[in-house]
Design brief:
It is built from four helices and 36 strands. It is mainly β. It has a 22-stranded antiparallel beta barrel. It is globular and about 75 Å long.
Length: 701
Amino acid sequence: MAMSSTLRATAHAVHAMVALLATSQATAQDASLPPVTVTASPTRDAQQRAASLATGTAAPLLEVPASVSTVPAELMRAQSVTTLQEALRNVPGAQADSGFNGSHSQFFVLRGAVADSGTGSSRVLRDGVRLSNYAFVPAFTESVDVLRGPGAALGLRSEPGGSVNIVTRQPELANFGSASLGGGAHNALDATVDINRVLSAEQELAARLIVTRSTASEWRHVPDRLDGAKLGISKSDGERYHLRLGVEATDQAYQPDYGLPGVNGRPAAVPMDRQLGEPWANSTTRNTLVDLHGDVAIAPNTRLALDYTHLRGNSTSVRQSVGAAVAGAPLGTFARRLAYEPDTQRRINALATSLTHEHTWGATRHHLFAGLDRYTETLDQPSAGVASANNPNINVFNPVYGLTTRPASFAFATTTQDLASTALSLQDRIEWGDWSIVAGLRHTRQDFLYGPAGTRGVQESNTSPKLAVLRKLSGADSVYASYGTGIAPNQASSASGQSLPSRKSRQYEAGWKSLWNGGRLQSDLAVYRLEQTNLLSGDLSTPSMFDKTLAGSGRSQGLEASLGGDLTRAVRVQVAYAYTQAKFTNNTEYPGKTIPNVARHALSLWGQYRWNAEHATGAGLYAQGARYADIYNTTVLPGYARLDLSHTWRMPLDGGRQLELQLALRNVFDKTYFVSSHLHLASYLTPGQERNLYASARYSF
């Protein structure tokens, strides 16, 4: 009921916004009024914004001693990106992981560090705030910014492999809009309207409304639909202050896709679109989010910022998957599992304030950052299993459907999560001639509880240091070395009913960054060693698979390289390569095993040739080596290389308008491959889609 009230309130706000925009436009067209010239404020460079993940302040990437990447909306549109995993192909060291919340909420692995933390493993940052089970909506996204490795200055905590920040579109001081429609094989559909209007040029008041519907491809015969609306209003006074209020609502309905199981160490040799799940109803996720931002210049070189974000989520999940192979049964016969999680309630409140100051002292220039974050998240998740009588075995080679039934009643148990965390960050980036030094501390205090009724919470206090040195070799080259640490909660409890302390990480890194072609092309090269401790490990003294200890540790190390920008006036390229070695060094169940879903070699190569101002042709090659599918290293996902082609046609129209048409052919050679798996079991292998065509049109005005 509360969710319905929130959605109704959002709908009323959207209706009022549309009326306000229409009134504003009509007023602007009134010939009796004097003409008004609106000058848009310059947009902060996306790469500088990505740099703030590492240091808390914007800076050219050449001056940031960390591995940071940005994938702007322009690049995603040129590549016909519709999912988060597709966007992250442009980031070296990012590989796909399998989750079962629909294609709009995808998981990933950074630098071989699996964020294995139960219901929170799909965490991303949204505008600097870490959220759980937040759907990726391309229509709302300005860029995807990534810090590889621990040590984030933002986001309240630092995941071991790194942080992915989804930067959302905000109101701008310009009148513009667009309408786009895209569709492809198997009912894939994306439709978006984006309208931005200046409500008052004198008051620097603007508003933006984005409405979207996205239906993922149903090539594996499961629905996945997301409806969303995003409304924002901003007020500013030059650079003196900026205020912004936003409301976002999404409604997703899907069926979890557990893919195909492995048989005899390889994916089952069956049609790639074979679906083994038969849930009796769709799963749903409804999120409503309100955010408030304000920043003010309190002195010429000093700025104070305040951000508040509230997320209210409600979800219902009906999950059916194959479990272990049935002993003594014909080959390919698996037990099936079915879990029912109705009316899960999630609430997140995040308040962050920061102070930035630049100061010259003798021959040094200091960029100071001080941040204080308060974050609370609660989760109440009732769940029930379904007896085998309602959930019979199935043979992957000869499936018989229609035998699953819904029980007349359920016995529910509730998993509770309560996280309350406060973090203080202090950091200084010191420039001294061609040298830069970053020194920082992040102190975190948190109370955390995760588990069934009766589980005891854990209190933690941790200080994470960061130290980095950078040397500019010229105006186009710099080298750096860095050390950073971080923590992230473990969502598990022990056999005695005790919530477990956070997993910890530390990283050593060295890198080289360069600018080429007059700064229009940028490259970076990094080598690193990432160590993790306090990883979850099974408690072999109890029969329950959910009883955990912190006996686990892991290590990943490797090399990452990227190149992006304009190679010539006509050729644009984006290259990402990673060599990654990742394994568990200690664990009660799988010591020395390779971390799943992490290929030794991963390559993404994309290029676009601009024939003229109207036509551009693109090609993308995405390749991974073989990698293990499960944590016990029993099943292998074969390596693959996939080729995509696209052509974009832009047609200028009168009055600054434009029509853009794009045709994308994905998986040109119809390659059979597997995207990823679930790290614990070889039963959940996610196939890649066969050759398919996607066409889109975008009208800008």
